[in-house]
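pinned: reference chain
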Amino acid sequence: MNTLHNFLFNVYPYICLTVFLMGSLARFDRDQYTWKSDSSQLLRARQLRWGSNLFHAGILFLFFGHTVGLLTPHFIYEPFISPGAKQLVAVYAGGVAGIICFIGLTMLLHRRLFDPRIRLTSHRTDLFILIILWIQLVLGLITLPYSIGHSDGSVMLVLSDWAQRIFTFRPDAAGLVALDWPYKVHLVLGMTIFLLFPFSRLVHVWSGFGTLAYLFRPPQVVRSRKLGLKPSVSNQQSGASR
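pinned: its structure tokens
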């Protein structure tokens, strides 16, 4: 068990991050025609509109919330908020966003599974990644009661310390041993999503973040030019004949 724990939380994160970055670069370089979200809006627009909006609103909040919450050093927010209060804010805000995301993703998954036309046009990887995301959301919601039970913020500190050690190349997951099983499974499945990222439709997320570059690009200069209208040859001949 110690060997498995060491692999999952000390080695596996770097495998997933390497495949995530290098795989995305390789796919963009070699298979740009597959770099898309494969929308099925023409087949069933109403359910897609509701499900997609709810899912994207929830998942974006969860992504940035997890990123900021896990990677922000404790000493930065310590003067303003205690670890326990921060954990409660994360539980309630993340819970609301998680429920919104869960409703939207369930609508999208139901649409893919039970609409015959969409099912025929869906790739197996589309269904597979949606199911994994759905399970990951369920696991995240399961961790909420456990987090409320540790209102002192100890769980958040352990998870933050592990994530910051991974990103600063100081892997040491000894503190994760004492965590409850939903946290561990949630972490492993979350890393697996990064591992599968380059091989699924999720790569279009890069394009979404890439559009932010348009905010900083220089404006295009468009000059108007007045063109003088000249009578055509046929009009000149018709006028001469008159």
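why pinned: The radius of gyration is 26 Å. Residues 2-6+43-208 form a domain with the Fumarate Reductase Cytochrome B subunit fold (CATH 1.20.950.20).
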